[in-house]
Amino acid sequence: MKIARLLLILTLAVVVEQAKSQSASEDLSALDPDNLRWVEQTCPRSYGPSLWTSCVTREIRALRAPGWPAVDGLASEMQEWVMQSCPITYGPQLWRSCAEREVAALTTSLPNLADLSTESRQWIDQTCPKSYGPQLWKSCVAREMAALGRAISQTAEQNRAMLPSQTPSLGNSAIALARPATPPGTPSTTTDGVKSQAASSPPGSPLMLTVRPEGTAVSLRDLVRVEVAVEVQLRLKERGFLKTPVIDGVWGPRSRLALRDFKAANGLPRTDEWDVSSQSALFDSTYVGAAQWYIAPDPTTDIEGLYRSFSPALGATLHPLNPTDANLIQARLSELGYYRYQPEGIWGLVSRSALQDFKAANGLPVDDAWDGTVEAAFRQTQVIPAGDTPFGEWSVAGFSCAVGMNPRKMVISAKGVAVGSMICDLQGPLVRSNADWSGSALCHLAGRDLYQAA
Length: 454
Hints:
The chain is of the alpha+beta class. It is built from 13 helices and 12 strands.
């Protein structure tokens, strides 16, 4: 009796599967040729009757469901982006869910990278390739731009304390008071070490006040250091001459123009030369800011007075903010494998990161300073190239670093390690022991501390 019941159940199961298979075949025959071919490619008959039937049923259901993703309504470039992110080999169901997600991402505003410097854009493009697809690309870019903004803000706050006070106690200070652009030879009076303005100065011209303790020399801050460049850019923006929402520490044409125009507006030489007088004037609130009608010039056409040479540091012959010198440094970093772009003569974030990696690998202080010691190490033939370090992009064998949504990709630099959305900040320099490198790091995920890794 039990055997008869078992045979009956098996027979009914076969009949049901046959009925489902026949129904699936009939549904297939009702499809147009393109969709028929699509489902047949997605559900090959090598699956066997049971899997093939469930696959066909699932894919046809996805084809017939209302609300098909409106890819055709996108611009041609965006359509191509969606199709690259969601290849048709996914099959109707997976393709549909993928396309719905990507189209929804494109219907909202995309991050604006236009105001970033060239190197900042390159850095973000390297971290967030378009192959991620619209949704992941948007979230990646938003995360990286926010991180860049936080880092710059923190650096600026830390370095504001390093600026000379604008309102010190006078005590026995020497005070220099004058008006800008006073013609040479204008008489002035000097009393008790205080120089007063000439009586013939034009009315309404701004006063320039510099207060300095007697015997104290003003040191020129180094714009090669990103924290210094950020502070100067912030000040130029506050004075109305730097018209950009992004402060990134890249001393490029826009920053040079802003400094030039600030100096010209205050009677200083109309050049982008960074010297003690320019530094003192910029951080002196009595110097004038930009007029309300000021419009920043186009850095591709208005370059008069720009690219004045920076003097190399003691013991060095090159200065990274001189375009020709930057080209030479970038070319050497590229030769050693630390800089993965064509030299362009602008010293920015990617260049600084490459320099930090080089310095970390070769036992130098891990910062972006350039001096005679660094230049001497650069010129040596026996230096450690990037290929002998862990710095760069890594992936599991068989998985390309260029493939989007690759969770097996890891990026290592002198500052830390990034794996997907997890960031690990190195707590000290990586140490080389024979062929191995080791160090400790504090890892974060979505802004939360995770653990200390070794």
